[in-house]
């Protein structure tokens, strides 16, 4: 039982950075914008969060700075694609490359310098309960924040006027504009929100999962987050489920490497590929299966919009 609890806790922790990034990207895509720069924004959030925490000693300030850094990088993307009408796919890929290089430059002086991990929340009398205690009440605050944000985004999109406007902008920008909704402003705000959450995902990596900075420490999690949005058919609850499934695949990969390939005699590189092979398999099944109609993207996803005068 203790082993199962340990595995479950590890899965939740492994899923959290991808969940942050995927929920942020979901909001961006529901507004009709396709931002492929998630990996770069996560890396910027990771290095800024780590650097600010190390230099100031405040994890709260580091987390806030990571969100702002991710939003700042997203703002560059938004100006290019929403104001200057640059191609969204090419700009997103350039943003990832830029984020990889900039994070390496900023973090050059922090490589190999560990810090204390984020403290776990401890509730007296509850956290000590067998099984339930360590399973539910011994994570740090960012794990609970990721779940709370997922629930909040689901409520926002489904039950609020602003959420309905955002969905309308993503489905038909022309129609939304014709009845007076500020399409560009909505897309700017959605893009900034997505960047902030990607920054939080990166900060969780460098402050909690492995509390140190290393170049390219996201290791493709930003790309998996993009796939999670499709896997979850642009619905927060399904994205949450998908994040934990992919977190389980990640833990399986680490366990397989540590135990000599689970007795299969396969090279460790095969197990390193597991999360990415799973991503490809899921996207292939979604694209080719008879249920692909249920995974319809927002109608205006990736399409530029210029307001008519």
Topology:
Blueprint: H1 2-30, H2 38-56, H3 59-83, H4 88-106, H5 132-136, H6 141-159, H7 161-171, H8 173-178, H9 183-209, H10 221-231, H11 236-258, H12 268-272, H13 274-288
Helix pairs in contact: 1-6, 1-9, 1-10, 1-11, 2-3, 2-4, 2-9, 2-10, 3-4, 3-9, 6-7, 10-11, 10-13, 11-13
Keywords:
mainly alpha, globular, 309 residues, membrane, 13 helices, single chain
Q: Describe it for me?
A:
There is one protein chain. The chain has helices spanning 2-30, 38-56, 59-83, 88-106, 132-136, 141-159, 161-171, 173-178, 183-209, 221-231, 236-258, 268-272, 274-288. It has one domain (2-295): ABC transporter involved in vitamin B12 uptake, BtuC (Orthogonal Bundle), CATH 1.10.3470. It is 69% helix and 0% strand. With 309 residues, it is an all-alpha fold.
User: By helix and strand content, what is the structural category?
Assistant: mainly alpha
Q: Supply Rg.
A: 20 Å
N-to-C order of helices and strands = HHHHHHHHHHHHH
For the record, the CATH class is Mainly Alpha
Distance between the termini: 65 Å
Shape: globular
Could you name the ranges where pLDDT drops below 50 across 5 or more consecutive residues? none
Could you say what the CATH topology is called? ABC transporter involved in vitamin B12 uptake, BtuC
Q: How many structural domains?
A: 1
* Proportion of helical residues: 55-70%
Q: Please tell me the CATH architecture by its name.
A: Orthogonal Bundle
Q: How many H/I helices?
A: 13
Mean pLDDT: 88
Proportion of residues in extended strands: under 5%
Query: Would you count the extended β strands for me?
Result: 0
Q: Mind describing the biggest β-sheet?
A: none
């Amino acid at each position: 039982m203790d082993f199962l609890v340990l595995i479950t806790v590890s899965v939740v922790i492994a899923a959290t950075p991808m969940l942050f990034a995927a929920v942020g990207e979901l909001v961006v895509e529901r507004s009709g914008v396709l931002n492929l720069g998630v990996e770069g924004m996560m890396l910027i959030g990771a290095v800024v969060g780590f650097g600010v925490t190390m230099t100031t000693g405040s994890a709260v300030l580091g987390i806030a700075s990571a969100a702002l850094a991710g939003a700042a990088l997203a703002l560059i993307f938004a100006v290019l694609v929403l104001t200057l009408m640059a191609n969204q796919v090419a700009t997103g890929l350039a943003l990832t490359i830029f984020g990889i290089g900039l994070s390496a430059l900023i973090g050059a002086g922090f490589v190999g310098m560990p810090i204390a991990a984020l403290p776990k929340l401890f509730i007296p009398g509850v956290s000590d309960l067998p099984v339930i205690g360590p399973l539910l009440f011994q994570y740090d605050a960012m794990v609970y924040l990721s779940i709370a944000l997922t629930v909040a985004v689901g409520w926002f999109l489904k039950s609020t006027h602003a959420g309905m406007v955002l969905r309308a902008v993503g489905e038909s920008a022309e129609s939304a504009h014709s009845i007076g909704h500020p399409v560009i402003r909505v897309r700017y705000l959605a893009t900034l929100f997505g960047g902030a959450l990607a920054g939080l995902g990166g900060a969780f990596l460098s402050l909690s999962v492995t509390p140190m900075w290393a170049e390219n420490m996201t290791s493709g999690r930003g790309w998996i987050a993009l796939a999670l949005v499709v896997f979850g058919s642009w619905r927060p609850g399904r994205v949450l489920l998908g994040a934990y499934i992919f977190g389980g695949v990640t833990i399986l990969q680490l366990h397989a490497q540590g135990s000599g390939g689970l007795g299969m005699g396969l090279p460790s590189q095969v197990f390193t590929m597991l999360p990415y092979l799973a991503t490809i398999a899921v996207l292939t099944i979604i694209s080719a299966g008879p249920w692909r109609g249920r995974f319809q993207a927002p109608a205006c996803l990736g399409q530029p919009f210029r307001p008519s005068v």
